Amino acid sequence: MSKLKQKLQEKIPEYRERISNLVKNYGDVKVDEVKIAQIYGGMRSLKSLTTDISYLDPNEGIRFRGYTIPECLEKLPKPKGAEMPFVEGHFYLLLTGEIPTKDDISDVVEEFQKRSKVPGYVFNMLRAMDKDTHPMSMFSAAVLALQRESIFVTRYNEGMSKMDYWDPMYEDSINLLAKLPEIAAFIYRLKYKGDTPIAPDPKLDFGANFAHMMGIKYPYDEISRLYFILHSDHESGNVSAHTTHLVATALSDAYYSFAAGMCGLAGPLHGLANQEVLRWVQGVMEKMNNKVPSKEEMQKFVWDTLNSGQVIPGFGHAVLRKTDPRYSAQRDFCLKHLPDDEIFKVVSLLYDVVPDILVEQGKAKNPWPNVDAQSGVIQWHYGVTEYDFYTVMFGVGRAIGVLSNIIWDRAVGQALERPKSLTTTMLEKIAKEAKG
Ligand code: CMX
């Protein structure tokens, strides 16, 4: 058994005990109440989910297992001479709650390398898809095609005990995660580089191998590691994490669950916003004949977008009420590596202009930028100008968090999710009884 799996096995009994104590002895303690506005308003702020992988404070932003982004970037071990930590180490942290040692990391890196070979039928299927298929459809389809490999399904059909569900969920999750960099890079090279895939280099870590298969040189390996870590998790209520969890509660395996989560990530209000930001910025640049607009010109572009009934992509958030620390981490990277990039200047100008306008408009609860406002700039600068691919990279990163979550879901026996619905007439009756 791998050291990582052993560590997990040691930790599971304690959590089972804690949860069983909460449910048995405190099961009737009230945590929250639900209002009609929340039922119609996407259940915002309703405290009805649990996860130990990450926590999102509205003002502080994300903490992964209690660590802020700067703490993770500082404490997690890095490949020799690298600026950004191993993605594999971040996975170890999310799964176990502990910062791995260098030894722990080598073990996980090796484990991933052993499981990374993508079967040929996945590539054949991707090649058979129509040329104008969106890369997110290709990504989800590739994951679904792999479902036939599920160890969970085989073990379930053999008649496995409930207590053991986490074990094949772990196996499937690592098998899937290890293959995602190659699947993503293959889609990129197939769709945009004339079907010229680059073979993986088995000696490289997760992030460096992705950069290698994309065919992009240093510091793209650093960017890949940073990008995957930053996008990994955002507690469990966002669409991709919640969908993955929801589908997995039906005891669907990791492939089905993750593919479903990716279909949610592909929406423009969620992960697709990173492509939308670049598309929007490109539109502005085109109108300006590729010149960075003045502050006044930018204010006009923003108002025009709002007045035409569209949102400003990359701004606002359902939970956050301050600038997203994932935005700040990427901005720091830009300030260090690409301060003179024209698109970075436009995105910086947006940061100066948009929050005041959103406040003046008075609708958005959070006028500050989110992760998607900044991520495309870096990709564009290093040559990934095909912005409809950006969400695929978000998806590779998101896998680290959501797969950790569903392994733990099975470990602690999370129940089938099945909230209760009411009709409009019933809600009207409840409203009338409460307020007359
Ligand atoms: N531009 C214009 N209007 C905005 C806005 C923005 N960036 N953010 C919110 N609003 C509007 C909403 O559309 C809503 O309008 P209506 O009342 O007309 O429906 C109003 O402000 C209130 O919305 P909210 O409560 O502040 O925000 P929500 O929780 O409903 O939605 C989010 C959150 C992210 C979908 C929204 O801020 C948005 O659409 N942002 C732009 C898209 C984006 O960047 N998404 C990526 C989020 C991060 C991620 O998941 O990847």
Characteristics:
436 residues, mainly alpha, Citrate Synthase, domain 1, Cytochrome p450-Terp, domain 2, 2 domains, two-stranded antiparallel sheet, binds carboxymethyldethia coenzyme *A
Description:
This protein has helices at residues 3-26, 36-40, 69-75, 87-96, 102-114, 120-128, 135-145, 151-158, 166-192, 206-214, 220-230, 239-249, 254-265, 273-287, 295-307, 325-337, 342-361, 372-381, 390-411, 424-435, and strands at 54-57, 61-64. By secondary structure, the protein is mainly alpha-helical. Strands 1-2 form a two-stranded antiparallel ribbon. Carboxymethyldethia coenzyme *A binds at residues 44, 238, 269-271, 273, 306, 311-318, 363-366, 370-372.
A few lines on this structure:
This protein is mostly helical and 436 residues long. It is built from 20 helices and two strands. It folds into two domains: 1-271 and 397-436, Citrate Synthase, domain 1, CATH 1.10.580; 273-381, Cytochrome P450-Terp, domain 2 (Cytochrome p450-Terp, domain 2, Orthogonal Bundle).
Going by helix content, strand content and strand pairing, the class is: mainly alpha
Cα distance spanning the termini:
63 Å
Main sheet makeup: 2 strands, antiparallel
In the residues, how many domains can be counted? 2
Radius of gyration: 22 Å
CATH superfamily of the largest domain: Citrate Synthase, domain 1
Low-confidence stretches: none
Please bin the fraction of helical residues: 55-70%
Overall outline: globular
Q: Tell me the CATH architecture of the largest domain.
A: Orthogonal Bundle
Number of helices: 20
> Within the largest sheet, what's the order of strands?
1-2
SSE run: HHEEHHHHHHHHHHHHHHHHHH
> Which hetero compounds are present in the coordinates?
carboxymethyldethia coenzyme *A
Mean pLDDT: 96
Strand content: under 5%
